[in-house]
Amino acid sequence: MKSSAIFINISRGGLVNEKSLANALQNQEILGAGLDVFEDEPISGNHPLLTYKNCVTLPHIGSSTVETRTKMIELACHNVRRVLQGNPAITPIN
Fold first, then answer.
1. DSSP secondary structure of the chain
2. Active site residue 60
3. pTM for this predicted structure
4. Minimal CA–CA distance to 50: which of 39, 63, 35, 29?
5. What CA–CA distance (Å, rounded) separates 13 from 8?
């Protein structure tokens, strides 16, 4: 990544090697990071990534908008109706 890059992860914490990310932030190999997810959640209060001024962290609430929550509720209700009617859920949980 370029030294001007800002790394953002809002998907899954396990996709990121947090130790490598911390090193990149500390050594200014990248400009910054924005994280909404972590390997272990909730993140511990003494986690190294919380100490960097160039790292913005959220407690897994990046999707907490009224629009997103409404769509999540609608999808959940749609799935429940489908399953109760004997059909597979659109987004099954494995």
1. --TT-EEEE-S-GGGS-HHHHHHHHHTTSSSEEEES--SSSSPPTT-GGGG-TTEEE-SS-TT-SHHHHHHHHHHHHHHHHHHHTTPPPSS---
2. yes
3. 0.69
4. 35
5. 11
- The residue annotated as part of the active site, out of 13, 48, 49, 60, is 60
Residue type (1 letter), 20:
S
pLDDT tens sequence for the chain (94 residues): 899 999 999 988 889 999 999 999 999 999 999 999 999 988 899 999 999 999 999 988 877 899 999 999 999 999 999 999 999 999 988 7
- Only one residue has tokens 């790394």, namely 7
Characterize the bridge pairing of strands 55-57 and 6-9.
Answer: unpaired
From residue 20, alpha-carbon distances to 44, 50, 68 in Å are: 18, 14, 31
